[in-house]
Structures are given as C-alpha cells and as structure tokens.
Specification:
Blueprint: H1 8-33, E1 57-61, H2 68-84, E2 87-90, H3 99-111, E3 116-119, H4 128-136, E4 141-144, E5 155-158, H5 161-175, E6 180-186, H6 192-205, E7 211-219, H7 224-235, E8 249-252, H8 255-268, E9 275-279, H9 283-290, E10 296-299, H10 302-317, E11 325-327, E12 331-333, H11 341-347, H12 351-355
Parallel strand pairs: 1-2, 1-3, 3-4, 4-5, 5-11, 6-7, 6-8, 8-9, 9-10
Antiparallel strand pairs: 10-12
Helix pairs in contact: 2-10, 3-4, 5-6, 7-8
Length: 358
C-alpha cells in the first residue's frame, strides 16, 4: 500500500522540526564542551564580517590555557585583534592532551562560520582532517607553535623548535664541559613542536662524545602533575646510597616538564646540585633561574606568535601575500644574562595587561 504524500504544511513542520533538532543537539554538545552558547551560527559566509557585530571573528585555538606560554599567545592575539578591528574567540580544549576535545573545538568554530582560524594543533596528524574540512569550506587556517602534516594552511608561525632544542643541548654541554651523564625528559607523543626540540637536543649532543645520555625515552605528559610524577620515576634509578644523584645534567622540553622536574629536584634536595636546562618561562622557573636551581631556559616569544598568527591571517583575508613560514625566534636565558632587556622581556611577557589580570 502506497504511503500518502505529505501536504505542504506537513512538510514545512517536518523541516522545521529537523532544523530545531539539529540546533538543539549542537547546543547540548557545545554546552558540554564549554565552547559555544545556545544560539545559531552567524549567517555570514566564511571570511565575511559577522552580521550581528559587523566585525570579522577569528577563532584562536591553543593546546591549553593554563600555562604562561598560552596566556602570552592569547595576549598577542588580542593585541593584533585590537589593531585589526576584529573579534577573537579564544577556545581551548578540556585538557592539553585531549585531541578529541580540540577537534570538536575546531569543528564548532567551523560550524559558526568564523572568518578564519589560528590553531596550535595538539597532534600533527589527528588535527589534519578538521583543518582540511575548514579549508574546504573556505575558512583559512594559520598554524602556530606546532606543525601539522599538511601544507593547506596559510602560514606556519612558530619557534624553530629544532634549533631551540639544539641551543638547549649546546648550552647544557658547555656547562658540563663536554663530559658527564645526562637525561632528557620528553613531553608527549604526536606533539610536533616538542618532538622537534627533542631531536634538536639529541643531534646537538652527538658533538660531545664525553656526555653519556642515560635516559631519553620517558614522557612527562600534559600536566605539571604528570610531569612531576614522571620526573620522580626518571630520577629514582639514579639515587645514590648516600642520597645524592648520579647525574650531571638534565634537559626538559617545555614549561610543564621543566616545572615538574624542578619540583622533583627541589623535593629531593637536588635542586642546584645538578645542571638543569629547561624550556619556556614562568614565575617559578624564573625564580629558580635567579637562585641557580636552574642553569638555562630556552625562551620562545609566545606573544609574537599569537600576534603574528592573527596578523598573517588578516593579511591573507585582505588578499596580501603571506610567508609560508615565520620564525618567531628563541634565546637562552641564564642566571648571568637574565636581567638584559631582551631576555627579561621574554622571561616576563606582558600578558597580564592584555588579559586584564592583576
């Protein structure tokens, strides 16, 4: 028996119900993730101003939001947004190792038809499909901090991470006078930026045959607490019967691993008794450097990264040529040079002014 065709009024009601269902599902997912309110996406086409505000809206997606590094990127993005007259939507995932959460953030902002995205991908492979989806829908993407396995982005704005790792390796080797026992604490698998630093460090150390790398395969993980536990586990086999540490040098590749290792050394009474070089800055790391509990910090320029990420995206939207790669530079801070103006600027980025933090 053939089914009776729906009347025009019935079809209208059915279509409306479908639209409401789709919007409601998106609303619930957005509320659960904390990445969107219960309102329909703007009707603007990708790359065009939001009709509700008359300004372009740029989505900026970091790997995390708690570290000073990410706060500084946020501040740089806000500075560029003020100059460009655009609105920034700053959306982090739930955790710094939660790839699925970051993918959902990207997809949510694509569905909102933002003018463009500035993304620090958590994983160089896992974030490739959502980025290609965004580009396919006419939403340009600038990659910052950590590379992605595609060339379909507008520009890659980041530290030369390999070179940063090499700088850290050479600095530690000079402190060791080219001999001794050293370890490296990695960050997380799939993080392109830190993997490049790790390789740069390892390659630098091949120039110093007198230095034995006795542990290089442990991962600190996404949080400072994970890094603290990993550091304790890494150091435990090197504890000597007299309570000392049978190590001469340590290298860590980002803020969380450096912080976790510092805590482990302090708690065991080893801080300052082993040569320690880390990556990035924070109030606690800067204080440890001043007190010579640390002997070097490889510093990036995260405010420049956030600033240039938004600037390059806006230049692209205006039809201007944009460099495919932008190196925001790195420096090595030491207890002896940390008061020099340029080093101090990188050690103490002015993110609080832009984020309105006391």
């Amino acid at each position: 028996m053939a089914m009776q065709a729906a009347s025009p009024d019935q079809e209208l009601r059915m279509n409306a119900a479908k639209l409401w269902h789709g919007w409601a599902v998106g609303c619930v997912i957005g509320m659960a993730l904390g990445i969107g309110g219960c309102r329909p996406a703007p009707e603007s086409a990708p790359g065009q101003p939001d009709r509700s505000s008359g300004r372009r809206v740029i989505g900026v997606i970091p790997k995390g939001a708690t570290h000073v590094f990410w706060k500084s990127i946020h501040a740089g993005a806000l500075k560029a947004a003020q100059e460009e007259g655009v609105e920034i939507l700053w959306k982090a995932g739930l955790k710094e190792d939660d790839r699925e959460s970051q993918i959902k953030v990207v997809e949510d902002l694509v569905n909102r038809n933002v003018s463009g995205l500035v993304l620090a991908p958590l994983d160089d492979a896992a974030l490739r499909p959502p980025v290609l989806q965004a580009v396919g829908q006419g939403i340009p993407v600038v990659i910052i901090d950590s590379d992605l396995k595609t060339d379909k982005y507008v520009s890659f704005v980041a530290t030369d991470n390999y070179e940063g790792g090499r700088k850290g390796g050479h600095h530690l080797a000079r402190l060791l006078n080219g001999k001794g026992r050293a370890v490296m604490l990695r960050y997380a698998e799939g993080s392109a930026s830190t993997m490049s630093r790790e390789q740069g460090f390892l390659d630098a150390m091949t120039n110093y045959p007198g230095i034995a790398l006795v542990s290089t395969n442990r991962y600190g993980g996404a949080t400072t607490e994970d890094a603290y536990k990993a550091s304790e586990n890494m150091l435990a086999p090197f504890r000597k019967p007299d309570g000392g540490l049978d190590l001469d040098g340590i290298f860590c590749v980002n803020e969380s691993t450096t912080f976790g290792m510092l805590r482990a050394l302090q708690d065991a009474g080893w801080a300052g008794k082993v040569l320690f070089v880390g990556f990035d800055s924070s109030d606690m790391l800067n204080r440890a450097l001043r007190n010579r509990e640390m002997h070097g910090l490889v510093l990036q320029d995260p405010m420049a990264m956030g600033y240039q990420g938004v600037k390059k995206l806006m230049a692209h939207l205006r039809g201007e040529p944009v460099e495919k790669r932008v190196d925001t530079g790195s420096q090595v801070a030491t207890p002896d040079n940390m008061n020099e103006p340029e080093i101090r600027r990188l050690l103490e980025p002015d993110y609080r002014t832009w984020l309105k933090e006391e």
